[in-house]
Amino acid sequence: MSTDVVTRRSVLIGDAAALFGLAPSTVRWWESRGVLVPPARDGGKRLYGDADLRRIGAAYLCCVVGRMPLDRAAAVTSGTAEHSAWQRVVGDHLALLERQIGQLEAAREYLRHLLLCEDDDIAECRLLEGELSAHTPRGRVHDPDLVTAARAARGDGRRREERAPDHDEIRGGRSARDEDPRGSHARDENPGEGPARDENPRGGPRPSRDETQAPCPDCRGPVPRAPRGRPRTYCSRACRQRAYRRRHRAGRA
Question: Which PANTHER family does the entry mention (predicted)?
Fold first, then answer.
């Protein structure tokens, strides 16, 4: 088949990305992460036919609409997994979303309740104590006086720490953080034992800006590093506009 015929039945990466409002870099990123199968090439240029475009659309549905991480989306869209395997991945992600939706609905209901407060200072609200007992760990301590309850909570934590296993038991398969009932706060409460968690020892490695750059919240692709100024949130103007439209529609709903 001649090159002219191939070109007439396919498009370059810019056109393929534009069809779904994506940046070409997003399509390349999805290919590098296994979400998309790399297309045929002609003269070093990617050529996308009908099947390739359909696969990009499926990737958009999973990554953008379905909010799936790239590794999960790859199991669905790459065409390499059996039906039962990728269906299981979809089911697991759906269960995760349902848990998150439940948490968000609970947050919404509480914030709606909070709007009913008539006090200028929320700390003076007469209903606050009941809310603390119902929605925070303060409810584990039944003493009505907050100062007394705070002392009791700290003392209970110390008693649990004294019952923690020794070093040999921890090395047997459990980490020190798992055994410390105070969790990550233990470091903050004992500054003399070593540097705080967010501090780097002198001469220690520090993560580069690229290593800490979050993926694009819309397409989950890489976000190019800004040459100057604040770090970018979205990888392209198209992703930023889509996110804006979704927020605008949600605000009108």
Answer: MERR-FAMILY TRANSCRIPTIONAL REGULATOR, REDOX-CYCLING DRUG-SENSING TRANSCRIPTIONAL ACTIVATOR SOXR
